[in-house]
Amino acid sequence: MSDPEVIVIGGGVSGLSVAWWLAEAGIPVEVWDEADQPGGKIATRAAGGYLTERAASLMLNFRPEVSRLLAATGLDADRVSCPGPPGSPRYVLQGGRLVPVPMRPGALVRSPLLSLRGKLRVLAEPFVPKGRRPEETVSEFVQRRLGRELLEKTMEPFIAGPLASDPDLASAQAVLPRLKAIEQRYASLALGIFVHRVLKRRTAPIHEVFSFRNGLATLIDALAAAPGVRVHARHAATQLEPTRSGWRVTGNTPGGERTLRARHVVLSLPAAGAATLLRPFDDELEGLLRGIEYASLTVVHLAFDRSTVHHPLKGTGFLVPRAECPQLTGCQWVSSLFPCRAPPGKALMTCYLGGARAPETREWDDDRCIAALMAWLAPLVKITAAPERVWIDRHERALPLYHGAYPGRLGAIAARLANWPGLHVAANYRGGVSIRDRIACGYAMAQGIRSALADSGAPLPAAAFRSFPMHAVGGSSC
Ligand SMILES: Cc1cc2nc3c(=O)[nH]c(=O)nc-3n(C[C@H](O)[C@H](O)[C@H](O)COP(=O)(O)OP(=O)(O)OC[C@H]3O[C@@H](n4cnc5c(N)ncnc54)[C@H](O)[C@@H]3O)c2cc1C
């Protein structure tokens, strides 16, 4: 088999997205993944009439690259959209009760979530002067613009839940780049968002929240099956070396040790794994990557007989502010979102334990996780019997934390990478953790590699010179 132009190490959604966009442009690419199958944090389990996601469960899209990929792969037809507000609200826990999250300014004014003082503070946002400090934390940014109450009651659970992060430590520039950019451009979030809405600057619907009929593994299968992408499972890269014309990768495979050469290598494995590969030839880059912190998460799926849950479960689920319960970050009402994911007459809930604000939960055994969840959930959604089925997925290094001076770290990583032509990093610690951002970053990276190959005079197939079908939209620093 001939050597490919590009080798991608790590077949999670980051690596597979780069590979898919490269193959789309006619550039041969090989993907190695050390696991039994590609997908990384995206894996769907079907058992006993239930469908559960081991980690990621939903996509929220507003990027044209994602819409384009879904159309080109035919995945559009497989999509299952999530019902959204007002008919199906998301709740936040407050004082032991579930309160709907207001999604529009009018709803915020009527909502019991904030006090009158808190609401007036939010309404004063347009009069708050523009911030001058680039290295603000999320808490500093949100508190400065919208007030402490909104931070604690809504923003903190949104950062602690989907990102497993701590707003007191997370960099606002890294976690909220779009809001920071709007502030700098319009001096007000309210004004900026209004202008964007009026001018319809969005290129895809903002509340496009969905999965696929058979779960998110469908996305992985489609990316891995693209013509031109050769995916090898059980291929663990152990060594990376620069050569005169590119890179040599060595790894353990079921057939023994294998070595492959390519002009470009994309590191799409978690930061510590990338650091290990880089150690022999760039200890500064190794240190920058090894210093990235991760949060652990335990995902607990609980299935009940519906008759034993005396709550309508009308909505998507709820998020939990630190002040209410630091260990539980949120709970998704899966059988309300996707009725086909549980047998008739059953209720399926997925709960998330841990994250940056409760690292101690990684030590909890299964019984303790279930007992704690039942103690919190039973009074909240009126459960009167034990779960009939439970699945627990543990992620020791679930999500990278964009904590501290994170933009500075990313800048230093980019500066070191510039010394190594043909070496690239595409992973969720750079440019956003969501599947949407991973696909969009994959597009940007594939574009860069294609240009570099063309500039170097590499004999590329004709398809590689046809222009990519769209322009990347700004917003993330991939
Ligand atoms: C619990 C949880 C819930 C989430 N929910 C959502 C959600 O609902 N929506 C959303 O958009 N995002 C969600 N995310 C985030 C999203 O799933 C991840 O950010 C994304 O899937 C990470 O993709 P990745 O390819 O960067 O990394 P990974 O998925 O970690 O992939 C890295 C790959 O590298 C491979 N690898 C490691 N070492 C080697 C080696 N030496 N050689 C070869 N291969 C190697 C691994 O086997 C793995 O497949 C969630 C994440 C978690 C943990």
Query: What is the CATH C-level name of the largest domain?
Result: Alpha Beta
Instruction: Estimate percent helicity.
Output: 25-40%
The count of helical stretches stands at 16
Radius of gyration: 23 Å
- Ends distance: 32 Å
Spatial sequence of strands, sheet with the most strands: 8-7-16-17-18-15-19
Strand content: 15-25%
Short structural summary:
This protein has 16 helices and 20 strands. The chain has 478 residues and is an alpha/beta fold. A hairpin with a 2-residue loop joins strand 3 and strand 4.
Q: Helices, strands, pairings?
A:
Elements: E1 6-9, H1 13-24, E2 29-32, E3 44-47, E4 50-53, E5 59-61, H2 64-73, E6 79-81, E7 90-94, E8 97-100, H3 105-110, H4 116-123, H5 138-146, H6 148-160, H7 172-175, H8 177-186, H9 189-198, E9 208-212, H10 217-224, E10 229-232, E11 236-242, E12 247-253, E13 256-262, E14 264-267, H11 271-278, H12 283-290, E15 294-305, E16 317-319, E17 328-333, H13 334-337, E18 346-354, H14 366-381, E19 389-400, H15 406-417, E20 423-425, H16 435-455
Parallel strand pairs: 1-2, 1-14, 2-10, 7-16, 14-20
Antiparallel strand pairs: 3-4, 5-9, 6-9, 7-8, 11-12, 12-13, 15-18, 15-19, 16-17, 17-18
Helix pairs in contact: 1-16, 2-16, 5-6, 8-9, 11-12, 12-15
Bound molecules: flavin-adenine dinucleotide.
